[in-house]
Each structure stands twice: as C-alpha cells, then as structure tokens.
Amino acid sequence: MVASYDLLLVVLSYLVAAMASYTALSISGRLGQAKQDDSRYWRVGGAIVMGTGIWSMHFTGMLAFQLPVALGYDIVRTLLSWLLALGACWVALSLLSRHAFRWRSVLAGGGLMGLGISAMHYTGMAALMMTPAITYRPGLFALSVLVAIGASIAALVICFKLRQARRHLGWYQLLAAQVMALAITGMHYTGMAAAEFAPGAVCGARHALSVPMMATLVVGGSLALLTIAWIVTMLDARLESQTAKLAASLRAANEELLRINARDSLTGLANRRAFEAKLAELQAGGDALSVAFIDLDGFKPVNDSLGHQVGDEVLVAVGQRLAEAGGRRNLLARVGGDEFILLVIGARERPYLNSLASRLIEAVREPIEVGRNMVELSCSIGIASYPTDTDEVKRLIAMADSAMYEVKRSGKNHVRFYSPELDLASGNLVERQRELRNALVQRQFMLYFQPKLNPYSGELNGVEALVRWQHPERGIVAPQEFIPMMERFGLIVELGNQVLELALQALQRWLAADRAIPVAINISPQQFGRDGFAEHIIARLTHYGVPYRLLTLEITETVAMADMTRTEAVLSRLREAGIPVSLDDFGTGYSSLSLLRVLAPNELKIDRSFIKDLAQSPAARVIVAPIIEMAHSLGMTVVAEGVENEAQADVLRSLGCDELQGFHYARPMTGEDFARWCFEQPSLAAVPA
After folding, report:
1. What does the pLDDT look like over 567-611, one tens digit per residue?
2. How far apart are CA 669 and CA 476, in angstroms?
C-alpha cells in the first residue's frame, strides 16, 4: 500500500517540535535556578508540557501521513503513547534538576529518554490497529531508535551547556531548539519510513478517534498548552530577573551601608570599627605595624567660642591634613571628638616614625581659615609598635593612647613612644579609678566653704561650696587632683549629685540654727547636660525644705555655650523657680554682651586671672571696669574671685564690685571651721534667716 504526506502538516509538525524544544530548554533553565521545593513542581509541569509537545509533534506527523483507506486511532493506545512521552520527559528533567554535568548520567538518561520516545512513537503507530499488522524494516527501525537516543543525549548536553552561557542566551536557546526539532522530526519520519503497510490493509480504529477529531485535539490542544507554558516560563524568567535585580540592588545597598558604617560621618575617614578590622586583618599577615594616637590640643575652646559648625569644619580640615601627611598606604581614622589614630603599615623603626610624627604635628600646626576665623591648633601624639612593644596587636591602640596621655601631662605638642614604664602608670590609673568609685560609695567627699563678702560693710553675703576628697590614707586631696579623673572615668555626675546633697544638708542645718546663708555650688558640663537637670535640682530643694533663693548654681561660659537652645530652656526653668544662676570664670571664654543678654544670669563672677594684676596694671582695670558696668546695666550682681590683698579690694570697691571672695578674707574651710569663723567676725555674729 502506497503512502503519501501532506506537506503543510509536515511543516507544522516541525514547528510543533521546535516550539516544544524551545519550551523544554526554557524549563530546563528554570530547573537550574529553582530551589529544591520549586524544582519538584517545575519537573512535574515541565514533563507534562514537554511530553505533550513531543507527543503532539508525533501525531501531527501522523496526521500528515495519508493512506488510501480511512484512518482512526485507538483511544487507549493513544493515551498510553502520551504517558510514555511524559515518562521519557520526566527522566530527562529529573536529570537536568541536578546541577553537575556528568557524562555517565547524561548517556544513561539520554538512552532512557530515547527509548521512551521510541516506545511512544511505535505505540502511537500501533493505535492505528491496522489489519494485517504493520511491519517494519529492521535497518530503518534500528536507525529510528538510535536517532531518538542520539537526539535525547544531544538535547541533555545542550540544556546543560546553555546554563553556562552568560551572553546571547536567547539566540543560543533558539538555535538549540531548531537542532532538537530537526532531531525529533528526523526520528519520527525515519520511523515512519521503516513502516510497511500490506496491500488492502484496513484500519481497525477508523471508528474510534477520527482524523479530524484527532487533528483538533492534537493541534489545537497541544499548541494552546505549549503557548501557555512558554508564556508562564517567560513571565517567571522575567520575575526571576527582576528579583535578581532587586537582590543585586539590595546587595549594593548593604555594601553601601557597610561602607557608611565603616566611615566617620563628619570627616569621611575610617571609624574605630573599620580601623580595628584592618588591624586584625594585618595581624594575620605578620607585618610590622605601628599605631599613632593623635589628640588635638586646644580644640575645645574653638568649639566653645566659635560654635560647633566651625568646630566641625576645623575637624574636617585637620582630618584631610593628617591623611595627606600620614601617607596613602597608611590608614587614618577618627575615633572621638578631636582624636585620630593612624595605622602605619610595615614600619616600626623609631627614626621613621619620629619623622612621620613631626610631619603630622606640622600639618596640624598650620593655621586653619574657617570663614572669617583663623584657628591655630597643636596636637599630642603617642606611638606604639608591633612586635617591638607587644606581640598582641589589639593592645596597640591602648598603648599608644597611654603614650599620648603622657604627652598631654608633660606639656602637649610633641610625640612620645610607648615604654614599659607607662604600664605602671596605667596600673595606677586603674587603681585610682577603683579608689574614686569606692570614695563615692563610702561618701569620702566633703565640702569646704569660702565666704563671699560685701566689700563695703564686710558682711557675709554667702559662701561657695568647694569639694574635697577625704582620703583615708592621704588625707585631704585637692579637687585639681581628682576632678579631671572623675571626668575621664565618667564619675563626675555622681560626684556633682553628692555635692548637691552635702550643700543642701549644710543649708538645712544652718536654717535650723536660724542662719540663712546662701550657698553656691559648681555644676559640671556633664551634670548640666543631663535631661531633667532643673527638675532634679527643684526636687532636692523641696525634699530638704530649703528656700530656692539660697542655692546658687555656678556654670561656666563653656557649659552655657555647649548647646545654647537647651541652656536657654534650662535657665528659663530655673528662673521661673527662683533658683539663682551664676556665670563663673567670666572673661576666659566667649565673654560677650549678647551672651549675657540671652542667658540673663543672676550673678557674674570675674575670673581670678583678671584680679591678679588689678592693683598694678591699668590694662587690667580697663578690662574689669566695663565688665562690672555691663553686668550692672543688665541687673546682675558682680563677684570677684581670687582677691588676695587689700590693694585689689580697694580697686574693686572703687569700680563698684558687689561681692569679694579670696584668701585676703578667708581660705576655704570645713563646716565646723566656718561656723567658728562666723562667730569670730564682729559684723557676722548673727545672720538672720
């Protein structure tokens, strides 16, 4: 029996094969990217789509095949052929879900897939149920099976190789789909050529699935399924691409965040975290390393007098100079307000480090122009080296810091290298910190009182309370020996609170004895800066039952200028409550009329440095006179501290100073000594409450 083919359907069968191949390649690409749970769903869906596509190509080719008898297809065998196609594609996709390419697996998988496709083809041929049965030419039959196996192996190899493509992936995939389509259609038509139909043969399934019905089912259904699958694959790929872009953006954002976290926000230099990370990284290499700890001398007055904006600009300029002087190979970091550290890589020789430190000092010493202001600074530098000074890199910063503090203590503006003797000093520092903490717990601090007198009548106007440390072994310790340590160790606020309690207890005792003597106490910057400062003062005065007017709070210009907005709010609250405020050490800082008008303190204390030469120096009188006049014009009381002789007192009286305080009248004394002193003064025998 002579067979023929419908050319249009032959072309359509090739297009179906090409579309099925392209969709299969897309699905295989998704398998390589999908997570384990998602991969299972892709294998199931992919096997259905890919198997249906190959099966559709087969039956499209069968529809193109024409015999001079009516044809039809057995439903069971047709369905079985479809299941065989799905099984073959499941084998292929299961293999593709593995990420590693192995020839043994590819050959075995390709062989099973090829046999499955061949079984699908010949089961589909059997669905015709020809009588007599179809016979096959052995050579072409074997060739068709080999073509199916070869095409399957080639398809698997192409799928694996496409995963490695980074450029022009779409074109490679399209070309590969054409190669696979040619292989699939080649296998089909080779198998068809192997078939022999006996003359007068009859199709036993002509009354089952007819050719028109089969055409509608195969062509319409399969093309719709393949189209939908292709669209889903493309949309998923696009979604994956967008997800990848978002992930890349997130990685970039994280990297930028890490970069920002490793940088000082003001100067753009490395911060301490980045510095320590670099230090740890270099330690692993065993290279010689040195750390230079740099602290600016005289920066705080710049910040206090010119404001934080100018101070920030100065720090940026200093950072740029230090980075340039320190060298590109080395790493500069800002680790505190006016503290920098330089990591010197591959160097520990003292002559080189000394020369480097000199360059750093000179760089800082050059005047810095900020707006209309010309700022001049210096710096103190401490240097420690690895492995010369220590075999623990992590100790370098602390050792360089100790050396720097020794520079500060001995005059500033030079460099010192770490030496073992500093360990003893560090040990003493730790011991001093322990002692000071214990002193707070044991309440070893006490108050001395220094009178403030009316310069004309000699009457007692009040006292200033001055803290002393009653050390169990060293006796009375002056404040200049422990106040800086308290500030450094963060204990100054607790000390200030104890001073407040002691002053209020003294006021309570004096009030009980019908003596209302105003007491002034010094307030530290840290204490004044605490939230709720004014409310705390008011609460303690109320607790002790002390009239608010009897406690004067002395703050310096530096404290007042730290945060003007906050200072105004705190002073306003204190004024509302009736608690007097004194501006201490006036003349050593900003010292402007505008400052006095804004702060409006009750009292102004002229710094002792202006009083010292008052009797001998006309220039000193020229400075002090307008201060007193200006304060009086604003309704303030003026106190001169550090009065040591009658000549100074005479000048101050002539200038109209309101109160005098100093050794000329009385030294600071204990509460008991102060009580005796009061009764010994004729004009002070009774100070009514």
Report:
1. 888 998 999 999 999 988 776 554 455 567 777 889 998 878 778
2. 12
Q: What are phi and psi of 366, to 5 degrees?
A: -60, 135
Q: How far apart are CA 101 and CA 164, in angstroms?
A: 11
Give the Cα separation of 215 and 262 in Å (integer): 69
pTM attached to this predicted model = 0.46
**For residue 530, what are the β-bridge partners?**
none
Q: Which helix (DSSP H) or strand (DSSP E) does residue 132 occupy?
A: none
H-type helices in 545-683, by residue range? 557-562, 564-577, 593-599, 608-611, 618-633, 646-655, 671-680
Exposed, middle or buried, 4 (CB in 10 Å: 0-12/13-18/19+)?
exposed
Q: Is the peptide bond before 387 cis (omega within 30 degrees of 0)?
A: yes
Give the helix ranges, DSSP H, for 34-74.
36-64
Amino acid identity at 185: T
- Tell which residue, 322, 334, 305, 421, has the closest CA to residue 363: 322
Q: Does residue 86 have a pLDDT over 50?
A: yes
Q: What is the pLDDT of residue 686?
A: 38
Asked if residues 160 and 101 have their Cβ atoms less than 8 Å apart, the reply is yes
**What burial letters (b/e) apply to 266-298, b meaning 16+ CB within 10 Å?**
ebebbbbebbbebbeebeeeeeebbbbbbbbbe
